[in-house]
Amino acid sequence: MDASTLQLIILPAGLIAVLFAVYLARDVLARDTGTQAMQDVAGTIYEGAVAFIRRQYTTIGILAIVGAVIIGIVITGFGITWWIMGVILKALYR
User: Fold this and answer.
1) What pLDDT, in 10s, does the model give residues 65-88?
2) Does one domain contain both 26 and 55?
3) How far apart, in whole angstroms, are the C-alpha atoms of residue 8 and residue 60?
4) Same domain for 40 and 77?
5) Could you give the CA distance from residue 24 to residue 21 in angstroms, rounded to a whole number?
6) Does one domain contain both 22 and 45?
7) What Rg, from alpha-carbon coordinates, does the chain have?
């Protein structure tokens, strides 16, 4: 296969994948949420997961600041600016 043939396949394959993902999402959201006990368990799991992620990002943020200071001491100037930008953008991307 040459590059032009692959380029003709990429767009339809991507659209089919997105449409299939939308179909699956709608199918899952349309299903029954379960009994009240199941919903309580799901809520507890969700609450624990949010607490874990919050703690994880707090730890990563502290380590990023410490790393920025250490890198700033070792490599002064322009390089640290880009590293800090990367850390901030990664935190915003999550």
Assistant:
1) 888 878 777 776 666 677 778 888
2) no
3) 42
4) yes
5) 5
6) no
7) 22
d(CA 3, CA 30): 41
| Burial class (CB within 10 angstroms; exposed 0-12, middle 13-18, buried 19+) of 83 | middle
85: Cβ–Cβ under 8 A, 6 or more apart, which residues? none
Residue among 56, 93, 43, 87 at smallest CA distance from 69:
87
Amino acid at 82: W
> Percentage helix, strand, coil, to 5, in the chain?
90, 0, 10
- Please give the model's pTM, rounded to 2 decimal places: 0.52
Looking at the predicted structure, is the pLDDT value of residue 63 above 70?
yes
Q: Which two tokens stand for residue 78?
A: 């322009």
Tokens 């250490």, located at residue: 70
